[in-house]
Model the fold of this input.
Amino acid sequence: MIDKLREEIVESEKARTDLMKWKLILIAGIGGAALGIGSEAESIGHTSVLLAIIPFVCLYVDALCIHNHYRILVIA
Done:
């Protein structure tokens, strides 16, 4: 019983690590798209919208991490 709970905690910690990796990937992707990296087209309207999305993406991923942290606390 305790071993299964320990495994569940370890899996939740791995999921949290994966979420942080995805957060970095999403921020880099959105930032790269906003700054026009990889293309020659420049549109100022899309740049500001994409840059404005980044904090909301961070908040969403952080909310998932907090939920995962609470899940670990409940298991522990």
User: Anything to note?
Assistant: DSSP finds two helices and no strands in the chain.
